[in-house]
Amino acid sequence: MIESNEYLVVKELEEMGASKKFIRKFIKRFAGWRIYFRKKRSEYDEIKSMYEQMIAVGSSRAEAVKYLSEIFGKSVQRIREITAIQKGLFDED
């Protein structure tokens, strides 16, 4: 985990193209907060997004899972678990 402060956050927001007005509102709103962005959540979202794109262009599930496994350094089984469609107990489908 990388510890940061408002100076580093402001520099990152500026590099991303955020306006001065937005940065001031952001700092004012979150002043005093300790914020932690979980890496796994964004990584899982990226895996799911890439998987859906690969399936949409015609890749087979096995090819997509193997490729994502190599890119993200996770086992094939773990990629299958991440990309599996989760059905809830009370889905109406």
Defining traits:
63% helix, single chain, 5 helices, elongated, 93 residues
Describe the structure.
By secondary structure, the protein is mainly alpha-helical. Helix content is 63%, strand content 0%. It has two domains: 1-36; 39-83, no CATH class. It contains five helices and no strands.
Domain count, please report it.
2
Please write the string of helix (H) and strand (E) elements.
HHHHH
Task: Report the mean per-residue pLDDT as an integer.
Answer: 86
Task: Specify Rg, calculated over alpha carbons.
Answer: 19 Å
Global morphology: elongated
Q: Quick one: how many beta strands?
A: 0
Q: Which structural category fits the helices and strands?
A: mainly alpha
The number of helical runs is 5
Helical content (DSSP H or I, runs of 4+): 55-70%
**Which residues form runs of ≥5 with pLDDT under 50?**
none
Q: Could you give the topology of this structure?
A:
Elements: H1 6-15, H2 20-30, H3 39-56, H4 61-72, H5 76-83
